[in-house]
Amino acid sequence: MISTKRKLIDFLTRLAIYICALFSVVLLIGIIVYVFYKGISVVNWSFLTSVTSVIKGTVGIAGNIVNTLIIIFLTMLIATPLGIGSAIYLNEYAKPGKIVTVIEFATETLSGIPSIIFGLFGMMLFGERLGLGYSLWTGALTLILMVLPLITRNTQEALKTVPVAYRNGAIGLGSGKWHMIRTILIPSAMPGIITGAILAIGRIVGESAALLFTAGSAKLLPKGIAGLLKKPTQSGGTLTIQMYLSATSEGDFTTAFGIAVVLIIIVLFINLMTKILTKRFDVSRKD
């Protein structure tokens, strides 16, 4: 009787798991199919390489793509070394105690703060106090505050997965602390570090609320190298900002779905790159 009851419970548990997994897959496929059905007709070479112009009669997102790439570059340029450095300090140098506990608690709390609050804070501090105004730099500095906890925590967890024997073996062979971290610890934790960095890029690509307060919504292409270098100090709307404006202020849902298609492709590419790079740098799988 007990055996039959356990078998029934196991069967129902497996059935519930399969149903949940199937629901997740169907939901993802449904969203992708619906968005592509609504927006794929808009996506063409002109849409990707031109800007919207009433005079020329063109609709394009090239300026928004450039703005998105610039803000990703600026954010990750600063957030990545800060996040990895903080994680190494907390894991390898800081002595366990109240200070480390407070830092880790603050990091976890920052991860849960709504992005619109970051946007308000960034607008007042970087935009008003520091005089950066509505610019890509203001948006990037705000996003640094948002993705820094993500990179730090992912790096910490990656460092914790490295076996203690690796550390002890390297130090036992005469390696210094920093040499051990640089040659043994970081390469072994590289898959997790890369995953954290790419997840941070994904959050940057999908962010809109914070950037509405900080980066603005300009969508013009910079002219030449000089214009590209000046662009971080100017207003610039990312793909998510333009999608929001197209769907709300302009009422152009066709363009909004077209941008959504581009964003989905970018997200799928980011996830694919995460898997490829994780396997590439996974030293445990190498002979």
Textual characterization of the structure:
- There is one protein chain.
- The protein has 287 residues and is mostly helical.
- It is 76% helix and 2% strand.
- The protein has helices at residues 2-39, 45-49, 62-93, 98-112, 115-129, 136-160, 164-172, 177-206, 209-214, 224-230, 239-247, 253-280, and strands spanning 51-53, 58-61.
- It has a two-stranded antiparallel ribbon with strand order 1-2.
- The radius of gyration is 23 Å and the shape is globular.
Number of discrete helical segments: 12
Biggest sheet statistics: 2 strands, antiparallel
Going across the biggest sheet, name each strand in turn. Answer: 1-2
Count of strand segments: 2
Give the overall shape.
globular
Radius of gyration using CA atoms only: 23 Å
Regions with pLDDT < 50 over 5+ consecutive residues? Answer: none
Spell the H/E element sequence. Answer: HHEEHHHHHHHHHH
Mean pLDDT level: 87
- Percentage of residues in strands: under 5%
Distance between the termini: 50 Å
Could you estimate the helical fraction of the residues in percent? over 70%
Helix/strand/pairing category: mainly alpha
